[in-house]
Amino acid sequence: MTNAEPSEDRSARSRAWFDTLRDRLVAEFERLEDEAPADLYPGEAGRFELKPWVREAGGGGVMGFLRGRFFEKCGLHISLVHGEFTPEMAASMPGAEEDPRFVATGVSLIAHMRNPRVPAVHMNTRFLATTRGWFGGGADLTPTVDTQRSQEADDAKAFHAALKAACDRHDPEWYPRYKARCDEYFYLPHRKEPRGIGGIFYDHHDSGDWERDFAFTRDVGEALLDVFPRIARHRMHEPWTEADRQEQLVRRGRYVEFNLLYDRGTMFGLKTGGNIESILSSMPPLTAWP
To answer: What's the pLDDT band for 123 if we cut at 50, 70, 90?
Structure first.
């Protein structure tokens, strides 16, 4: 690192924040499980199961899984890993061409909802250091019924407003830049369609002010923690039809296609010896292809 604070200290501070955000998300999502009306969501409210794991090449993390009555499947994971990039990976990582050693820490969330009228949500934020350091991540929303799959729909407007506010606290140019990157990234070229209604996506984010960038990444997490529970509570009382459920399963198939064909996080985790169970936990529990 070229700055005064060692990358190990920055990674530890980042990991401490990711731990805190994970704990707050756990508490809020379990509250949603408790609040979901019993007539639409029978059975016992679900609780997260937290499972530590160790990476043989260095580091590890904690996987979190919630399989409940409102959240059909939710994965919420934190990690802190270190080691050396392969020559292939080092060639694509800033600073790794000088020294292949790296440290990476992050939190990732993916929630697939039982009710088709409540959109699926994804968020991850991370800090990665080689001889350089940067933040990456973002959040996006994936409605699974046609009437909500527009950036002009109510849920989309609320979601984008929260992320715009998080960006604007630091630089008003970041939201349009990172929204455009999200729209470009979460796109299925073979189907010529977006995965959802977008959000923001950023990588190699290094403004030259690490504290500012860390604060921005924290604000992205805070925005998700605020806006998604509001959307979920707004939608959780809406009944659904079998046709809605079938449409949801088809849209989930698109989710699988994207994550296995194009998702960089999936590729990074697999190529660096990450935990396969947590890497593939983004897969929905049930899908359908017409």
So the answer is: very high
